[in-house]
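Standup notes
- HV: blocked on the assembly model, inputs below
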Amino acid sequence: MPRPIPVPDATSKPFWDACNEKRLIVQHCTYCDRKQFPPEPECRECGWHFHLSWLETSGRGTIVGYSVTYESRIQAWHPEQPFNNVIIALEEDPVINFHSNLPGVPVDEVPVGATVEVEFLEVTDGQLIPEWRVVS
Amino acid sequence: MAKETGWERNSDPLGIWEHRGKVAMVGRGHSTTDRRWDGESMDKTLGAYSLVAAQNAMEDAGISPDEVDGIISSAGGQANGQPLGEVWAPRPYFDPPYDSEDGLSHVTAEWLAKQLDLKNVTYMNSHGDTVWNLIGQAAQAIGDGRATVCLVTYPNGNMAGRYHQESSLEASGNAQWSSPWGWGLSGQGFTFDQYCRKYGSNHDRMAPFIVQEHKNGRLWPYSYYALHEPEPFTEEDYLNGRMIAKGLSIFDCDRPVQAAACYVVTTAERAKDMKQKPVYILDHTESAFRPRSLVQTLDDTEEWTDIQAKRAYAGSGLTPDDIDLFSPYDGFAVFTQYFLEAFEWRGVKRGDAHDFYAGDISLEGPNPLNAGGGNMGTGRMRTVFITDSMEQLQGRAGPRQVKGKAEIAVTIGVLPGNAGCLVFSSTPD
């Protein structure tokens, strides 16, 4: 299915480049000792940019809830309806969350609370995006 | 004095508003309500409807255009300037005053002042926010002495096509974090899913609230439904609603309409000479939040709405027991429960909203929630929250007039993450 492809910008390019190396990274402010995702030009807490670095994550998380999309605003997704929209909380910082469609899991049978691991899905030549699979 | 920007009351801790009870709302005016503009009828444009609303508001207040020295309008009611319906421009325009977007897809204060021939306006602002914020802005401007008689117009339009449809395969900007996974209205479904898991509820338990809103809305003359679909809306209708996302059916989403409203806001002193009983503004507060990460969670939602309630009570000096009429926004029906529980109106605590809906929330009973019918009962013009609060306190809500006391009304909208809250009173103290 052709789906919308992320267009990296100056702030997000390191994240998408890391995905292409099958690494899941988030920003880290060394001054605030705070993780940040999605990436931003500055730390939302202290407002400085020069304490921001990138941190590789465990790639593990927990399903904290979901919905099922029956009518999407995004036309490319219409052929896939209905589909799962799942939210993952990162293991080392549950405030940080990610999207997933949980490939292979039947619609509306999402195991909330289950542990998941990141995997990477090629959405176009040369671009991977994070996806997640249930491990327990 | 409020600055040109930064007029919002959003810095904690808030004290009692310095102009509490010194600003009043007097007149209100509405256009009729259509489903969409047909693209041809120049007497049914958003601009034309805004002019009708303004003229009706001035007539209602018993003032002439020459008495108006302030005017505030929204650019069109859609967040972030998003298009109404399909993206239409570039397009062939019409004869003046419809020779640009202004008057068609949005209506600025400047356009209105020119068409209304308001000769004495010294304060003009096209802030572009929602009606709660516009009233708050007017209240602050009046209190600060920037204007004495201010028109606040709120156009909310709908053109051909569907809202916010995305056809691009390039996900740039914020969309890069959501569109590759098809995320959209599922956001409301996700938060609702978290709510139901935390408190043990389900979507069907929203039914009594939505049915009551439709019932109330049928009694408001400008409601889309009162005008065009007056047949009753039943619980069976609700439960059979087509799902948009899990936890969100078509009947939990407000229906876009083409309409405009206008209000006359003035000083409490000046209001005494006008035609209608003044509705005093005891407080306005504003708030804007961002999710801590990618999506708005239930934790975010509860934290934000708690802050909004705290600000409103601190700013007005009131407690939940003082509120006779509570009208929290319902553009997505799930919003209402978050506001209701945060404000603890009628003692409703976190997780209690659906039990509350199952009780008596009728106009005749002790808990007339959204007495005007909200957006679900009237369409997405958002102005019923203001108009109904005014009319209830003025004692002229007609068949919607609540049986209980109607002295203090509170309304908040639009989003749990971005809202204005207004506290109205039938007396200035």
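- HV (later): unblocked. The two ends of chain B are 22 Å apart (CA to CA). Chain B touches chain A at residues 164-173, 175-194, 197, 242-248, 290, 292-295, 297-298 (CB under 8 Å).
- Next: hand off to the docking folks.
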